[in-house]
Specification:
Layout lengths: L23 H11 L5 H10 L3 H6 L5 E5 L4 E4 H4 L6 E5 L16 E4 L2 H21 L20 H14 L10 H12 L4 H8 L4 H7 L9 H11 L6
Antiparallel strand pairs: 1-2, 1-3, 3-4
Length: 239
């Protein structure tokens, strides 16, 4: 069975195209255009933490935590608020069958970059306003990313909203939310983050999985040998 990268079977019945990764400039353009979208925090979190789309859609507020420096403990932001310096995600659920993450290794805790934490803070405030507006029609599922009435996000609607963002960013409409994760891997690799760390951040059981799934996004380590030889013997010198 084919899967569309969002934890649901593909309805088209044909092989999907290989996933791509945003360049750094494209990623910045997407982040800028996402500011006016209800999907803003979703895009920021996906791009800056590398969580899977099915993990993002299942994320609950009880799993968004702040470090309480006074008590020296992580507390849900629903209790602690956002007046703290450090925040993290407990990536413990997905929209897969039974709500489990893809693998046991996929259950992980990810500290949030400052920009991601700020996006979630603004998103939390907007959602509170939505809840008041919805009144009795609001369904309290504690979901971080949900519809205007609190129900789970539909994968197709997320794809459409994301493609509208990429269109506004002038990079085309053939991008999918799952490629934010590929972009995360690519940007981390280009920044010199070791593959072992990338594998941990992505929730992979081993670096071999990371190398297999994201071989096109990882900076080729095979070039290191050539770089070392150039350093020892010099560049462009004949014997």
């Amino acid at each position: 069975m084919l899967w569309d990268g969002l934890g649901i079977p593909s309805a088209e019945g044909k092989a999907g195209r290989p996933s791509r990764a945003l360049t750094f400039d494209q990623a910045n353009a997407v982040l800028e255009q996402a500011k006016s979208s209800r999907l803003h925090a979703y895009v920021v979190i996906s791009l800056m933490t590398g969580i899977r789309t099915e993990e993002a859609r299942a994320l609950r507020w009880e799993h968004v935590v702040a470090w309480d420096a006074k008590r020296k403990v992580w507390r849900p932001v629903s209790e602690a608020g956002f007046r703290h310096k450090r925040f993290a995600l407990y990536v413990w659920r997905s929209v897969r069958k039974h709500g489990d993450t893809k693998t046991e290794k996929s259950r992980r805790t990810l500290e949030l970059p400052e920009r991601a934490a700020e996006a979630l803070k603004a998103h939390h405030a907007r959602q509170a306003a939505q809840k008041l507006k919805a009144g009795e029609s609001w369904q309290n599922n504690d979901l971080v990313f949900c519809s205007p009435t609190g129900t789970p996000l539909d994968a197709a609607n997320v794809r459409r909203a994301f493609r509208l963002i990429t269109k506004k960013a002038k990079i085309g409409e053939k991008w999918t939310p799952r490629e934010l994760r590929h972009s995360f891997v690519s940007i981390m690799s280009d920044s010199g983050v070791p593959i072992e760390n990338i594998a941990d951040l992505c929730g992979h059981s081993s670096t071999a999985v990371t190398e297999e799934v994201y071989r096109h996004q990882l900076k080729p380590v095979i070039t290191k040998g050539a770089e070392a030889i150039n350093s020892v013997f010099g560049r462009g010198k004949s014997a």
